[in-house]
Every structure is written in structure tokens, then in C-alpha cells.
Amino acid sequence: MPKLNVHYLRHALAQCRARETAPTKRYPAALRHQVTAHALNRRSAGVPFRVIASDLGVSFATLQRWVQAVPLRRLRRVEVSELPGSRLGGSESVRPVLFSPTGYRVEGLDVAALMELLRALP
User: Fold this and answer.
1) Residues 37 and 84 in one domain
2) Are residues 16 and 59 in the same domain?
3) Are the CB atoms for 10 and 17 separated by under 8 Å?
4) What is the C-alpha to C-alpha distance for residues 117 and 97, in angstroms, rounded to an integer?
5) Radius of gyration of the chain from Cα atoms?
6) Is there a single domain that holds both residue 81 and residue 111?
7) For position 61, what pLDDT does the model report?
8) Same domain, 87 and 114
9) Is the pTM above the cut of 0.70?
10) What pLDDT score does 44 carry?
């Protein structure tokens, strides 16, 4: 999907609001998808959802509801690296450390227990 300009999205959302006479507004699914993709992209750059909603001219609650409806990818590519001086291929037990994108750190589990934990996470 091409990267859309915030002004284009704001204008498209305003046009939908202007056409709608009901108290609750209905936005086309394609537009909601574009807005959600834009919001998640901006959020990954560190912009708060409240600022994104304000920039788009929608309420924070609306944007939050649309973003929460998006199914999250459960697995991400990771890079496995060896610490200097360690021997991952050796016979001693390996205790990996997991760093999550949100800042959690998990230590002290063996690989099997760590995989079980990752499968159990929502």
C-alpha cells in the first residue's frame, strides 16, 4: 500500500463526516485500513496516538478502536547473536536472554521454557 499523506487522510475522513447525517459516523473499511496503517507507522516512530488522532481529525477513542481491531502479528524476525567469548555450540547449557520491543527482559529460562512462554503470550 502506498504511503499516504496525513492531509489526504484528514480530507477523506472529513468528507465522510460531511456526508453522514446519523449521530454515529460510518467510515469505509478501506479508509479505516489506510488510517490504521498510517497510525501504526507513526506510532512506531514514537508519536502518541492522541497526537495522531488530532492530526487526522478523529477522536482518540475512534482511532484506538480501529487500531485495536487490527490483528497483531504474533511472531517477528529476530537476530540471534553470540556474545564475545561465549560458545553457543558447546555442550554447556545455554540460557538465552529475551529483550522484547516494549522493553521487557526475560532471563534464566532454558530454550524450551522460553519458547513455551512465547507461545503463551497473547
Assistant:
1) no
2) yes
3) no
4) 13
5) 21
6) yes
7) 94
8) yes
9) no
10) 84
Tell me, rounded to whole angstroms, the distance of Cα 12 from its chain centroid: 23
Q: Which domain holds residue 42?
A: 6-68
Alpha-carbon distances, residue 9 vs 2, 87, 108 (angstroms): 12, 52, 47
pLDDT value at residue 99: 75
Q: Which three cell numbers stand for residue 100?
A: 522484547
State which residues of the chain have pLDDT below 50.
Answer: 1-2, 91
88 shares a domain with 53: no
- Going from the C-alpha of 64 to that of each of 13, 29, 35, 41, 60, the distances in angstroms are 16, 15, 11, 14, 6
Nearest CA to 39 among 14, 64, 17?
Answer: 64
At 87, list the grid cell: 560458545
- Number of structural domains (the chain) is 2
pLDDT at 54 (0 to 100): 94
Report yes or no on 1 lying in a domain.
Answer: no
With cell 564475545, the residue in question is 84
pLDDT at 66: 92
